[in-house]
Amino acid sequence: MLKHFRVAGRLANKLEELGVSVPEVLRKAGLPQDLFRQTRILVSTEELFALWHAIECVSSDPLIGLKLAVETKTERFHPMGIAALSTENLVAAVKHMARYKKLTAPEEILHQISEDEFSISFRWLAAVETEPRLLTDYCFAWMVTIARHGTGKPVTPLRVEYIQPRSNVRATERLLGCQVTTGAVQNAIVFRAEDAMLPFVTRNTELLDLLAPQFDEQMKLHKAEDSFIELVRRAIQDRLTGQRPSIEIVARALHMSSRTLQRRLQEGGSSFQRVLDEARHQMARYYLSNSALELNEAAYLLGFQDPNSFGRAFRSWEGVPPGDWREAHRASTTA
């Protein structure tokens, strides 16, 4: 399974248009300030969730997730969206996105059609927590954008279903033009089957035939990049034995120069420091949940100079001190 999502660069533009400070969002999410200036913006599931949690914290608009997905200009659509609009209807568009999504990111787009309804939901395969509310809203509103842009009609969902309670139900209903229910078994957006089968005025089989080989090639590229990043991560973890392995040590273990290692990581949208942090984070969670190590012992094994440094790093990863995380994890496991 691939481990990274590719974030669309246009998200930063939309945030700025809606008055949300991008630097503040990145700071609260613990992500690099140059994230949206990178050629390929790749993030893990935890980083993606942190990004959307930060957007919710920085923005004062409870409907920001829905508004970020609204787009009327075709030229600003992601290539995947343009390809989806080139199919014959919403059902075909969702099937197309589902095929390529599960092969390029740790996410599945699930869909089911009956005589009366067409439902769409999203599954985050590498998640260890519930997905951010704003991210769910964004995914739902993006489906509405595809439906309306493709059909050229003001298509509205039949209803949206949320697992968790929502404080802005009425405002959401007004914006999406449909019923909102909470306490559902899954987060889902449901269209009328007849609306889902409406022909797309944007259908373009020639463009779809042109884009399909590029998507297939991109999938191969993503797999290769993720495999290399995972290789580097494992090499780092193998050498996290009381010291912080340098890029030179890891590069030598992989039989390449440090410059080549850094270049290949940058091509994959990452960096050595980022992979090192990910490796430490993974091992920290493992040590705290699967061993009786004291916190200072875990800090030593992870290559931190002292427990305080480890505590600061862990708080930036999980939002809580390592001791609190361990107790909460043990309590949930016992329960």
Automatic annotation (TrEMBL):
InterPro entries: AraC-type_N, Homeodomain-like_sf, HTH_AraC. Residues 230-328 form the HTH araC/xylS-type domain. GO terms for molecular function: DNA-binding transcription factor activity; transcription cis-regulatory region binding. Pfam families: Arabinose_bd (PF12625), HTH_18 (PF12833). GO terms for cellular component: cytosol. Signal peptide: none annotated. SMART domains: HTH_ARAC. The keyword Lipid biosynthesis does not apply. Keywords: DNA-binding, Transcription, Transcription regulation. This is AraC family transcriptional regulator. The lineage of its organism: Bacteria, Pseudomonadati, Acidobacteriota, Terriglobia, Terriglobales.
